[in-house]
Amino acid sequence: METSLVLGLILLNIVLLTVLGFFGFLIFKMLRDKQQTQNLQQHSPYHPEIQKRLDEVTFTNPYKEDIFCPYHPQEPGEVQCGMCARFFCPKCVRPMKSIYFCKEHMALYLRSQWQEVLTLKTNSNDPEGGVRLYEQKQELFTTQQVPTYIETHYKIDVDGDYIETYLVLFAQEDQLTEVQKYFQEFIQH
Ligand SMILES: [Zn+2]
Ligand SMILES: [Zn+2]
After folding, report:
1. Residue-range definition of the domain harbouring residue 159
2. What does DSSP assign to residue 85?
3. How many domains does the chain have?
4. pTM (2 decimals)?
5. 114-123 and 163-172: which strand pairing?
6. Kind and range of the H or E run holding 8
7. Ligand 2 center from residue 168 Cα (angstroms)
8. 183 CA → ligand 1 middle, Å
9. In 6-140, beta strands by DSSP E
10. In this structure, are residues 179 and 146 in contact, taking their beta carbons and an 8 Å threshold?
11. For an engineered disulfide with 53, which of 21, 76, 119, 136 has Cβ 3.0 to 4.6 Å away?
């Protein structure tokens, strides 16, 4: 009789300790999470909403100098200009067909005559050509300040198993020959 009482007490102790340990762990975890959230907020000099947008921008755009809009140093640069490829806040860009232009290049777009330089057909199985075209376009702008832009047209293949993408490169009329030469490899392709 006495042995079972002792056994019962030991068992009760074990149960109590387990329950206490469990709650202790919960409280510890709660305090730790709170501390971490506070640390995060203290380390970022920006409003949590801005910080959230900044995190997204940093993820899609690894170039640090582009993280903020050139005209609004407190606003993350989220939209890329189709001409200069810099990133601006949504207030500083205007849409034109499938492209966004910054204020400066929207003005340039509107006051110039644009001519088609080439059309590059790519599809989801072979995206490299498109990537190279964008890189070369950017290089031309950075090294020679020659503005061009690329329109994107999509066409679903008849059999429906892939989407064809047509990238159409445009240049200013008076620079057409020069730009054509620069993109020779895409035209012969
Ligand atoms: Zn621009
Ligand atoms: Zn802006």
Report:
1. 113-189
2. -
3. 2
4. 0.66
5. antiparallel
6. helix 2-43
7. 28
8. 21
9. 79-80, 87-88, 93-96, 99-102, 114-123
10. yes
11. 76
Q: For residue 77, which ligand has an atom nearest its CA?
A: 2
Half-sphere exposure of 62 (CA within 13 A, CB side): 0
What is the C-alpha end-to-end distance of the chain, expressed in Å?
Answer: 96
| pLDDT tens digits along 91-102 | 999 999 889 999
**Residue 122 falls inside a structural domain:** yes
Reading the block at residue 1, the tokens are 């009789």
- Note the pLDDT of residue 17: 83
Domain end among 111, 132, 159: 111
pLDDT tens digit string along 55-108?
A: 777 766 655 556 899 999 889 999 999 999 999 999 999 999 889 999 999 999
Q: Does 86 lie in the same domain as 143? A: no
Question: How far apart are the CA of 29 and the centre of ligand 2, in A?
Answer: 41
**110-128 pLDDT, tens per residue?**
999 999 999 998 877 777 8
Mean pLDDT computed over every residue of the chain: 85
Sorted by sequence, the CB contacts under 8 Å of residue 115 that are 6+ apart come out as 170, 171, 172, 173, 176
Residue list, CB under 5 A from ion ligand 1: 81, 83-84, 102, 105
Q: What is the pLDDT of residue 42?
A: 58
